[in-house]
Amino acid sequence: MTTSVYIVCPETYQNSSYDDGQYQLEEAQSLCRAINLKIKATKCVTLKKISPATFITTGHLENIRDEMEEGDIDLLYIDTHIKANQQRNLEKFLGKKVIDRTGLILDIFADRARTQEGRIQVDLAYKKYQKSRLIRMWTHLERQKGGGGFIGGPGEKQTELDRRALDVEIKRLEKDLKKIKSNRALQRQAREKEHFPIIALVGYTNAGKSTLFNKMTDANVLSKDMVFATLDPTMRGLTLPNGQKAIMSDTVGFIRNLPTELIAAFSATLEEVVEADIILHVQDVSNAEMQDHAETVLAILDKLGVDQSADNIFNVYNKIDILAMDDPFEYNRLKNSTDKDPQNVCLSSYTGEGMEPLLSKIVDYLTRDEEDYNFELPVSNGKALSWLHDNATVLNTDYNESDRVYVSVRMGQSAYDKFVKVFGYS
User: Fold this and answer.
1) Count of alpha carbons within 13 Å of 374, Cβ hemisphere only?
2) Buried b (16+ CB within 10 A) or exposed e, 364-375
3) Pairing state between β 393-399 and 344-346
4) What residues pair up with 372 in beta bridges, in sequence order?
5) Rounded distance, CA 309 to CA 163, Å?
6) % of the chain residues with pLDDT over 90
7) Distance separating alpha carbons of residues 276 and 132, to the nearest angstrom
8) Longest dimension (CA), the chain
9) CB of 84 within 8 A of CB of 112?
10) Contact 18, 89 (CB under 8 A)
11) What letter does residue 142 receive in the DSSP assignment?
12) What pLDDT shows up at residue 221?
């Protein structure tokens, strides 16, 4: 049976950067549809002050209660983060279930996670969220039984039992994630030995990252007009126009007010972004809120430790096929400006327009500051020779009678540094 929902988008001084109520409502509707909620009513309310007890003031709440009863609506969704006591008081006042933005996004992630890693990360974030609530709104934690040391005596409050049970689960999940993080580090070391540069895609949810990923790598990743269509990280090989091999990494889409629990839980996955040689920041030029979305993404990257001013971040202005139809003047302006900028490109991941300039700019970046180097290697070191052929332009190879080979190559500073690090020759 489908759950019906009443969406409330509160506009307060706290979220004044998103003062377009219509856009906020559209995004809230997208979030609800992502988990198959049936939208029966919506309302944008302006709050001059926030009620400490219920967040939304009594006058608005009385109208919402009447409309929910008349429409036989099961659930109230508030498109912001509210405190546990506010959520509990709202449920008492309305006689209905209530969920806030953090809870809904966590439910979407829980529904979308497919890999073991994704499920562990979501479960950890959800347990931390539950611990901050402990009011058992939708489900109740099963009472622990047995002789575990975390069980309290018969007079102990249920919330304390729940808290201890959650602490045990959180520690277990964090231990599992630590193993995943260790495995990722080993995988990253293996890739460094091959010196395949990492190209990571980031962007606001529904910006078209997965469509671009599929276009560049001939992959078959789910690509839909839907928030958080991609959750579990995906990596695929890519051969650049100069023959150099690289690895593309698609990541979860970002969104404003992304729960801090999720950012922390997905840190193992998002390390691929932090360690990437190039970050492609995909932006939807057909969306009127593109600038606000870009600022949201950059703020999250900053939390991850990525320098926003780093020269390895490329702005990829996507969906120019839509822009060309809606605003030809802006389309031409954007295309002309990005053609001249080595770190900006406009394209359509749907039609493929602009793909060649993007790939060309990636090659230019990876081969910047190229110089000629000479190496003397033992003929028996086939791995080092193969590496140079895969990651540098080999100018000359000269074998002598003492089982040595002299190789002259042209490559960038980063490639040279990695070759020295992996093979020890300089």
Assistant:
1) 4
2) ebbbeebeebeb
3) unpaired
4) 410
5) 42
6) 35
7) 34
8) 93
9) no
10) no
11) P
12) 52
- The tally of CA atoms less than 13 A away on the side-chain side of residue 278 is 25
Q: For residue 57, how many C-alpha atoms fall within 13 Å in the half-sphere facing its CB?
A: 9
Measure the CA–CA gap between 29 and 42, rounded to whole angstroms: 9
> Tokens representing 27?
């995004």
- DSSP characters over 74-120: -EEEESS---HHHHHHHHHHHSSEEEEHHHHHHHHHHHH--SHHHHH
pLDDT tens per residue, range 383-397? 888 888 877 888 999
The model's pTM is 0.75
DSSP per-residue letters across 371-403: EEEEEEEETT-HHHHHHHHHHSEEEEEEE-TTS
Closest C-alpha among 58, 60, 32 to residue 46: 60
Helix (H, G, I), strand (E, B) or coil at 135: coil
Q: Which residues of the chain have pLDDT under 50?
A: 14-19, 136-156, 222-223
Q: Give the side-chain half-sphere CA count within 13 A for 131.
A: 16
Q: Letter for the amino acid at 235?
A: M
Strand 234-239 to 245-250 pairing: antiparallel
> Residues, the chain, total?
426
Per the listing, tokens 């988008």 go with 9
